[in-house]
Design a protein that fits this description.
158 residues; 6 helices; globular; Rossmann fold; 6-stranded parallel beta sheet; 6 strands; alpha/beta
């Protein structure tokens, strides 16, 4: 598997690259920001891109914007977003815009390298991989907005 990595923290980026390379994943490029990542992917698309959700300059949704741009230009490239933040609106956007070969995991919930490499293999195979907390939040949000689940009697509107 060929992987490109984008993370604004140099220490975390280098650590991830080293750890994944030790697991047999070929790290073909590293970038400190999404602009650099998009250039790397444009020159030699990988199988998967691993990137931080919130990156410079605004630290809002640059990672997701880059993922959407990568998939628009290279539909076969899988993307896996990592974040310290469980942002339900961005998770919903990911599911809507990239419903396959994509993922969003929370950094603190990745307990070991096996979990991360498993997620990378899964998105590369076309799966949608979401942190369980994000799945619960998405399902809860959907039920709250669904008029069929809104009445106390259990029956929906007529």
């Amino acid at each position: 598997m060929r992987l490109m990595l984008a993370e604004d923290s140099a220490l975390l980026r280098e650590g991830l690259a080293h750890t994944l390379a030790a697991r047999g994943i070929e790290v073909t490029g590293q970038a400190p920001d999404t602009a650099s990542l998009l250039q790397l992917v444009g020159r030699r698309p990988p199988d998967v891109v691993l990137l931080d959700l919130r990156m410079p300059p605004t630290f809002t949704d640059e990672g997701l914007q880059a993922a959407e741009r990568i998939r628009a230009a290279h539909p076969h490239v899988a993307v896996l977003l990592l974040s310290q933040y469980a942002d339900i609106a961005l998770a919903a956007r990911l599911v809507d815009t990239l419903p396959r070969a994509a993922g969003y995991l929370l950094k603190e919930r990745i307990g070991n390298t096996d979990q991360l490499t498993d997620a990378l293999h899964r998105v590369t195979r076309g799966e949608l991989v979401l942190d369980p907390d994000l799945v619960r939040a998405l399902v809860t949000r959907q039920r709250a907005a669904d008029p069929w689940h809104g009445s106390a009697s259990g029956s929906g509107p007529c």
